[in-house]
Amino acid sequence: MAKGNPEVTLNILYRGPVERGHNWQDLFAHHLPQVKWHTWPNVKDKAEIDMLVCWIPPREYQQDYPNLKVIFSVGAGVDQLNIPSVPQHVQVVRMLDPGIQQGMTEFVQMSVLNIHRDTLAYVNMNQQSQWQQLPGVSTAKRRVGIMGLGNLGQAAAVGLQNLGFQVHGWSRNPKSVANMSCFHGNAQLQTFLQRSDILVCLLPLTDETRSILNQQTLSYLPQGASIINVGRGEHIVEQDLIDALNEQHLRYAILDVFAKEPLDTQHPFWQHPQIWVTPHVAAITQNDSAGQALLANVQRYLNNEAMAGLVNLSAGY
Ligand code: NAP
Ligand code: GLV
Fold it and tell me: Higher confidence at residue 3 or residue 42?
């Protein structure tokens, strides 16, 4: 913490979009004037910095900022921080922004409805002036499985239940969530997948979840099932997904996240008639609500209270 100016008790280094930085700097100046806000790369004395607010940290921050105590991710995910490389004494906090939660719920509702109502097939038919009515089922008969029952997965589940879908979920630890069947752990993964007509991936990317959607696990999904990936691209083995779609084992895939972003213009996902690509927009951090969440957490830190969204470094999320 700052030694020079007795009125400054904490130094935050921000690295990210300029407009968001100005917005948050003003917020802190107004509500927590004892916090000094620095904008990367303009730091005179790196030893002063207590907290880093960023998506990607500066290179070699572990050596360059010797008194760093906390890293705040500006997003819900923390895989981009390369958790194993974070020093053990540094706390990592993910962004619990109500704006992200709302955006994700909307995106999952929109995607599930588009699959449920065959939007992609009708768009393809439009392009060929083809008039064909496809059979449908009621939402009550459509079973949606959510992988990851955390902050975003549980909110999406409620949003889907409000539309009348049958929702069930899967997590690492046993869970009890009102009005839904909950499965957990590798032993229950197959049963969970076997009853998912539409699968939503809302997992964090960790060593345990990388490539979790592969030839074998995709084969457990019912014939004609569809996938929505809003977790991370590396959850899916890309060629295994393409094969499952080409073999008509799977019907549609709505993909928002990719192993390499932006998705290469030549990537086969773009032209595949059963795939709908969106450019990582399911849930964008909202400056206003996320700024409030950050402010509340820094206030908790100053009060010696536990911060919301603290990451378990050994679990990786
Ligand atoms: P969270 O609150 O940490 O929830 C993660 C959930 O995943 C928890 O239910 C956890 O189980 C489960 N999980 C973790 N590892 C697992 C494993 N090995 N097996 C089974 N379940 C496992 O995270 P969140 O805030 O909901 O965010 C989830 C992810 O969404 C983020 O990490 C990010 O990758 C992605 N995201 C994407 C966008 C976008 O725009 N596309 C935006 C925001 C976030 P437990 O409950 O048992 O711990
Ligand atoms: C976006 O992908 C996030 O993690 O917030």
Answer: 42
pLDDT in tens, 15-24: 999 999 999 9
pLDDT reading at 66 higher than 60: yes
Find the 218 Cα to ligand 1 centroid distance in Å. 19
Give domain status of residue 312, yes or no. no
Is 315 part of a structural domain of the chain?
no
Q: Is 207 left (phi over 0), alpha (psi -120 to 50) or beta?
A: alpha
What residue owns the CA closest to ligand 2's atom 5?
A: 75
114 and 41 in a common domain: no
**CA 209 to ligand 1 centroid distance, Å:** 10
Residues with Cβ within 8 Å of residue 43, at least 6 apart in sequence: 13, 49
Active site residue 232: yes
Q: How far apart are CA 235 and CA 229, in angstroms?
A: 8
- The reported pTM is 0.97
Shared domain for 273 and 289, answered yes or no, is no
Which residues are CB-contacts of 164 (< 8 A; sequence separation ≥ 6)? 138, 139, 140
Neighbours of 300 (CB within 10 A): 14
Residue type, 14: Y
* Atom 1 of ligand 2: nearest residue by CA position: 75
- Residue 4: predicted pLDDT: 42
Report the share of the chain in percent with pLDDT over 70: 98
Is 272 in the active site?
no
Q: Choosing from 142, 232, 235, 251, which is the catalytic residue?
A: 232
pLDDT bracket for residue 3 (50, 70, 90): very low
